[in-house]
Amino acid sequence: MATAIRTVALTNEEREALPPTTPESDNQKWTDLGEEAVLTIWPVASGTEDMHIYKAYNLLKTFLAEKEDMSMPNNLFAHLTLTLPLAVNRIKGDLRKDFSEALLREQEIYDKKLLDLERQHGSKLSKHETEISKHKMEISKHKMELDKS
User: Is the entire prediction scored with pTM above 0.70?
Assistant: First the structure.
């Protein structure tokens, strides 16, 4: 008898209504429903829900595909409960790493653009400052001429 696997995301209210299960990480929960094992993953931060579900689903698919070649344990729920939390923690680590790398790339791009703008406008600024100084000197000269007359 094959065990069906579903991946679902729950709201906090739905999460609280789940029956007690074995200990898990902060954002996942396994519920044994007889012939089905339900992996519940909810977001750890706003906007990450779809990515978490997608990665967890693909990981689960890969895991099950690999297990098809080996002898499938009779108690699939117990086996997955022991192995998948480690994998989900790895997914969370990968997400953090991907996000950190993306932020660093964005910061480098921003810094480069800022430096280019400073170079581009810095030379214009110094030219304008020189012109302003010339005008101030002319004004001072004209004031002195007016004072003399």
Answer: no
